[in-house]
From TrEMBL:
Species name: Corynespora cassiicola Philippines
Sorted UniProt keywords: Acyltransferase, Transferase
Region of interest called Disordered, as start-end residue ranges on this chain: 250-277
Protein name as catalogued: Acyl-CoA N-acyltransferase
GO molecular-function terms, A-Z: acyltransferase activity, transferring groups other than amino-acyl groups
């Protein structure tokens, strides 16, 4: 099916910032050249390296302030990789990598947490005890101190706040949760993110009733998820309850933070998603 350019969804952004824009169809990778595979524990280093590349520096300035960082970037990568390892094989946490069929290169990764897994973000220091990972990984107390020694106070605080907000919004309702997602810069806007998103969307929509889906995103990137039917809840949270077409400020005809939500037939939503990534 021929790809089309996504409709523009306007969202509020901070002064001096900009929002994610639709990408021309000819720049996308053919869906047949993107395959999804499960990550294994050996992918932890690749994931860590990629996160330092893909996530903006202001994120890392909050989570790992310069005064806490080790002298060598390799040490930061090693520590972050090790903190990821137990989650890569934890039951109910699905780590998927989008791989180029033609080159074998990993283009992006997503971590989907299935319904029923308790709300506790996997990178929190407290997750080690919550999920029993100290024993699983054979970590000593000294190793744990070293692994988190490069993180600042906001590492635990901000991830904890995200968990609190997610619990407030979702309560005990089972849902899919997007714990992590990135696409390497050279593959962004080419359909990789769509493939990683659709893996869980297809499963969520296959249940009756459909299973809710929850994620966090910076405000400027909201349109990517709104094309998939996610509705903004708070500053960083989005919730999806089945296929929907979500419009932004352009539907209002004015600058506000409201969004128009319309339930739509599956084929309409598929067209929106096809065009958005």
């Amino acid at each position: 099916m021929a790809q089309t350019k996504a409709d523009f969804i306007k969202v509020p952004v901070a002064e001096g910032s900009y929002q994610t824009m639709p990408v021309e169809p000819e720049k996308r990778i053919a869906d047949s050249d993107i395959t999804l595979k499960y990550c294994d524990i050996d992918d932890a280093e690749f994931i860590a390296k990629s996160l330092y590349i893909c996530f903006p520096e202001d994120f890392w300035m909050r989570k790992e302030p310069p005064e806490y960082r080790p002298a060598e970037q390799a040490t930061r990568v090693r520590r972050l990789a090790e903190r990821h390892r137990p989650a890569l094989s934890h039951p109910g946490m699905h780590w998927l990598k989008a791989v180029s069929v033609s080159t074998g290169e990993i283009m992006g990764v997503a971590a989907w947490v299935e319904p029923g897994v308790p709300i506790h973000y996997f990178l929190r220091r407290t997750a080690v005890d919550f999920f029993g990972w100290k024993e699983k990984m054979g970590w000593t107390d000294e190793q744990l101190v070293e692994l988190w020694s490069g993180t600042g106070p906001k590492w635990e605080a901000e991830f904890t706040t995200s968990d609190v907000e997610r619990a407030e919004i979702m309560g005990d309702e089972p849902h899919w949760y997007l714990a992590s997602i990135f696409t390497l810069p050279q593959y962004q806007g080419k359909g990789v993110g769509k493939k990683l998103m659709n893996w869980a969307i297809e499963q969520a929509d296959a249940t009756d009733p459909v299973t809710p889906m929850f994620l966090e995103s910076r405000p400027s990137a909201r349109p990517v998820y709104m094309h998939c039917g996610f509705v903004p809840q708070r500053q960083y949270n989005l919730l999806r309850r089945g296929p929907a077409v979500v419009r932004g400020l352009e539907a209002e005809g004015q600058d506000s933070d409201k969004n128009e939500v319309k339930k739509a037939p599956k084929e309409v939503v598929e067209k929106e998603v096809e065009a958005s990534n």
